[in-house]
Design brief:
- The protein is built from 37 helices and 24 strands.
- It is α/β, with parallel strands linked by helices.
- The strands form 6 sheets. It has a 7-stranded mixed β-sheet with strand order 5-2-1-6-7-11-10, sandwiched between helices.
- The longest helix has 27 residues, at 879-905.
Length: 977
């Protein structure tokens, strides 16, 4: 079953319980009933009702919607510290009525953590999408989760291994492999529950998994020791990292409930009865709650890029992280003399295989260390200074550090933590921006007596002073064409505001403002940039090449979904992105492509963070374009499931398929039979039936478009011919299933690469609206929701006059998937802008218009058309050349209508980029150029556009039969309103 929805939590949870857990509770591995009904009912009742009042059992993770915050979209908004201060002070930092346990924030208890709204507001106001946010005192990963929820990357460092584990689970994605391993673990635990040996035997059998705990009888009953050891032994053999971490977290959560420790915040022993089997039941129920909480969160943070490191933050001063590599620091350092994380997590650390004593030696602000070492506030500040030294080193110039700090009490003397740390920070080179005071709720104060007097805490905002830095800009490894070098230089000048020295596409060194460094991520013909200490890849390099150290020496035009389906005449994506870049659009800009074709402009606009709109009269083109972007917004688990389902069905397909044709339009059968052998028809029909029965919406479109992408190769058409012509040697059959699966897997691999890279995007992804429609018709613009003065940029590559037979080229796909017979296709072909198809009556009417100059086109174009008409009329040429004057007139009239519609929807001072080329035709025995570029520019000027410039570009040509008629030189006609 394939569901075309983003959130599948309810569905997966139902499957988890109804299909996986309940059968395994009541049956053995062979599905046979292993206990009587009474025993089964008792076991289920025990699992549901046991320990219902314990804090480690109750369901956690709120279903409430995650909060939203004021978010900046330009690094320029970080320059003005007074504006930053004003925005932050406008926030009500008490959050008295806010839900703090949303997503996985409450997946595990953790003392003295700060509420997620604090890092949420700070991250939104002090960083940008794709930035790296560091929490050097990461705790349980609150900052990290908020960072990736808000489209940033996260690095969380903490000396406490329990915090690292909790953070990793908070942001993990549980795939099918992980879920299967977790379910197997639960199956084993439940099976153990049914035939549980006595306490002594269980402890003896799993003695190696019981940690050394001094005076263990004081802290753990015999009944829980063996069961905890058994659970730990089973987790140790799990192979999947996500499954192992999730299970360890569930184990960590039940440890105190299975012990005599009084509570999370009281390290005293208090006897309580822990019945045999209770620990195993507790683990099963907690594990289920952890899984459910993680699954609820996955849809929101599934593309997050996050790293958790267990380390002493004081090591930041050395080589734990490169210099000038972090965009924002948000953290809540331990308060002086307030908490003892190593003590309250002591038993968790031991059962997870760690040594709490090692953690105790490096824990900053420890109350016990203060007592044992007679240390004071100066000692605390000394360790904080070491940490701040590292923070200053790794933070980028001009960027911020926000520290949530409380006052400290030593020997009944109150020390101002924020002010003291601010003084140290300024000594190290930081600028103090401001200190914001927030009231503490009485239930949120420290549980250590020395810290309970504090009623407020403060948020210290620091900045590493901005200084101009020398940055190297590296081009792609592949050789740039001359015009790409020009575009690269324009990109750098527009985006960075820098004067770029003349170059031939080699490395460029510029001294730039640090706030502009972030903008560099948007460059397309620059693939890496950085200083001597740290080099970063641009977003373009990441989506083209992934994360390989060695960048490709070959230009990749099929990244993400650009290669989803072949389409003739499209311009390549790097060019589209470069043209978008040199327009210098704002983050809320709208881009419109009136001839969207297979969606190159729209996908590049989407990948660049803009809202895009497009239409095309070609049904297949519109479907490809919608699918290219739509599939990227579908839950990856659903896409993988769809591909997996198709793979399984194909592997189980009958060896002899029936000659069924129900998936094809009856009116098309005769034509289909002329182009496809019967065995191929049967296979395509079987595939279409499987796709349409097992998928809906975008997922169905994706599966069908991939099938359409191989249709030429499995037909009688000559795959090397642009026009539809049959092979010289007809095929009798084809490996349809094998070719389809291969193509499906290749397309999925490209999409998987994008999913892995998505968290590095410097922009959020905006919706795209694409329809099948004619841009000459104002109703099409209304259907797109476009109004007058609504669009910031128009970027298009219109059909060249009489250049490509788009409909005829895709005849087989239109025949098989859309049920368009010859007469239907002919009508669409005739209606295309730039079509070669024309009736005699229409031709004569147009020639009359040419002869009497009655068209409103520019005078130079009218003169050219009349001269061409006179020459072809008096020449002994074929019907196609005689048709040319009329065809050209119709083309230019159509373009006049489209450009006037574009002018209406374009904002004042908005730009229109038109990728266009001159045509050739043979007259009087010689080929001559049709100056299409000049004529289109004249038409645009008469519609109101002003010409900014022409950017000369050249394109490669494909090995086509009609290469002599191909257009090998193009320009980008840059216009403005």
């Amino acid at each position: 079953m394939i569901l075309n929805v983003i959130s599948t939590v309810e569905y997966l949870h139902k499957i988890f319980w109804d299909v996986i857990l309940y059968p395994r509770i009541f049956g053995d591995f062979n599905g046979k009933m292993s206990k009587t009904n009474k025993q089964k009912d008792q076991l289920l009742l025990g699992l549901i009702n046991s320990s219902t009042n314990d804090q480690d059992i109750g369901e956690f993770g709120s279903n409430e919607e995650s909060p939203t915050y004021l978010e900046i979209d330009s690094p320029d908004q970080l320059r003005d510290t007074e504006r930053v201060k004003s925005d932050l002070k406008a926030v009500d930092w008490r959050f008295l009525n806010d839900e703090t346990g949303f997503l996985t924030h409450d997946v595990h208890p953790y003392p003295a953590k700060f509420i997620p709204q604090i890092p949420g507001h700070l991250i939104s106001r002090l960083s940008l999408r794709g930035d790296l946010v560091l929490d050097p005192f990461g705790g349980s990963g609150t900052t990290a989760l908020e960072a990736i929820r808000l489209g940033r990357r996260a690095l969380s460092i903490d000396a406490n291994a329990v915090g690292t584990l909790v953070g990793r689970v908070k942001v993990c994605n549980l795939d099918r492999v992980a879920i299967n391993e977790i379910n197997t673990l639960k199956n084993i635990i439940i099976t153990k529950l049914i035939d549980l040996p006595n306490q002594e035997s269980l402890c003896a059998e799993y003695q190696d998994y019981i940690p050394y705990i001094h005076n263990i009888d004081k802290w753990f009953p015999l009944s829980s020791r063996g069961e905890l050891a058994f659970i730990r032994s089973r987790i140790a053999i799990l192979e999947n990292d996500q499954a192992r971490n999730t299970s360890l977290l569930a184990l960590s959560r039940i440890i105190l409930g299975s012990s005599f420790q009084e509570s999370e915040t009281r390290y005293t022993s208090k006897y309580k009865k822990v019945p045999q089997g209770d620990t195993l039941k507790r683990f099963v129920r907690v594990l289920d709650n952890v899984v459910l909480s993680v699954m609820r969160t996955q849809a929101i943070i599934r593309y997050g890029v996050c790293e958790f490191i267990t380390a002493d933050t004081k090591q930041l001063a050395h080589n734990l992280r490169p210099s000038n590599s972090v965009d924002l620091i948000v953290t809540s350092p331990p308060y002086g003399n307030a908490n003892d994380y190593h003590l309250y997590h002591r038993f968790r650390l031991l059962w997870l295989g760690y040594e709490p004593g090692q953690f105790a030696k490096i824990e900053i602000g420890s109350h016990l260390r203060h007592q044992k070492e007679s240390s004071g506030f100066d000692s605390y500040l000394g360790e904080m200074k070491q940490s701040l030294t590292g923070m200053f080193r790794v933070l980028k110039y001009g960027r911020y550090a926000a520290l949530v700090i409380g006052d400290a009490i030593y020997e009944n003397v109150v020390y101002q933590g924020a002010e003291s740390i601010a003084d140290i920070s300024q000594e190290l080179g930081f600028e103090k921006v401001c200190i914001i005071e927030r009231q503490l709720h009485k239930t949120k104060r420290s549980f250590v007596a020395a810290g309970r007097r504090a009623t407020t805490e403060k948020i210290l905002i620091l900045r590493k002073p901005p200084v101009k830095i020398s940055v190297n800009f590296q081009p792609p490894q592949y050789r740039l064409w001359p015009y790409e070098v020009i575009l690269r230089n324009i990109e750098l000048e527009v985006i960075l505001g820098a004067n770029v020295p003349k170059n031939n596409g080699e490395k460029i060194e510029l001294v730039i403002d640090p706030y502009n460094l972030t903008k560099t991520r948007k460059l397309v013909f620059t693939h890496s940039f950085g200083t001597e200490q740290e080099e970063e890849k641009t977003w373009q390099a990441i989506i083209e090449n992934g994360f390989t150290k060695q960048l490709s020496a070959r230009k990749e035009p099929k990244y993400v979904t650009h290669g989803l389906h072949p389409y003739k005449g499209k311009f390549y994506p790097q060019l589209a992105k470069a043209l978008i870049n040199i327009c210098g659009l704002k983050s809320d800009a709208k881009i419109f492509d009136p001839f969207c074709g297979s969606g190159t402009t729209l996908l590049e606009g989407y990948l660049s963070g803009y809202q895009t709109f497009g239409c095309d009269i070609h049904p297949l083109a519109a479907k490809i374009a919608k699918t290219k972007i739509g599939i990227l917004e579908v839950n990856p688990d659903i896409v993988r499931q769809a591909v997996g389902t198709m793979s399984e069905k194909i592997q189980q397909s009958p060896s002899n398929l029936a000659d069924d044709n129900e998936q094809f339009d009856e009116n098309c059968l005769e034509e289909i039979q002329r182009w496809f052998p019967k065995p191929v028809m049967s296979k395509i029909n079987w595939l279409l039936r499987s796709i349409r029965r097992n998928s809906e919406g975008v997922v169905r479109d994706f599966l069908e478009v991939v099938l359409s992408s191989i249709i030429r190769e499995i037909s009688q058409q000559d795959p090397n011919d642009l026009r539809i012509r049959k092979r010289k040697h007809p095929i009798q059959d084809a490996d349809v299933f094998g070719m389809y699966l291969n193509s499906l897997n290749i397309k999925l691999q490209y999409i998987e690469k994008f999913w892995l890279a998505r968290g590095y995007s410097p922009s959020s992804f905006k919706p795209s609206k694409i329809i099948e429609g004619d841009s000459r018709n104002e109703l099409t613009l209304e259907r797109l929701g476009l109004k007058e003065n609504d669009v910031d940029m128009i970027l298009t590559s219109p059909p060249y006059a009489t250049a490509l037979p788009y409909i005829d080229t895709d005849r087989l796909s239109l025949l098989m998937f859309f049920g368009l017979a010859s007469s239907d296709r002919r009508q669409i072909e005739h209606n295309l802008v730039g079509s070669r198809e024309i009736t005699n009556g229409e031709r004569k009417q147009l020639e009359g218009t040419i002869a009497d100059f009655s068209t409103a086109l520019p005078m130079g174009l009218r003169t050219y058309l009349r001269d061409l008409f006179n020459r072809t009329s008096n020449s002994d040429v074929g019907f196609r050349r005689k048709n040319m004057p009329a065809l050209l007139l119709r083309f230019f009239c159509d373009m006049d209508i489209v450009l006037r519609n574009c002018y209406k929807v374009l904002k004042e001072y908005g730009e229109a980029m038109i990728v266009i080329g001159d045509n050739k035709m043979k007259v009087d025995g010689n080929y001559e150029k049709i100056t299409t570029i000049d004529f289109i520019e004249d038409i645009a000027n008469s519609a109101g556009f002003k010409t900014v410039e022409r950017i000369n570009i050249s394109v490669s040509t494909e090995n086509l039969v009609h290469i002599k008629n191909a257009i090998t030189e193009n320009v980008v006609l840059r216009l403005t309103k």
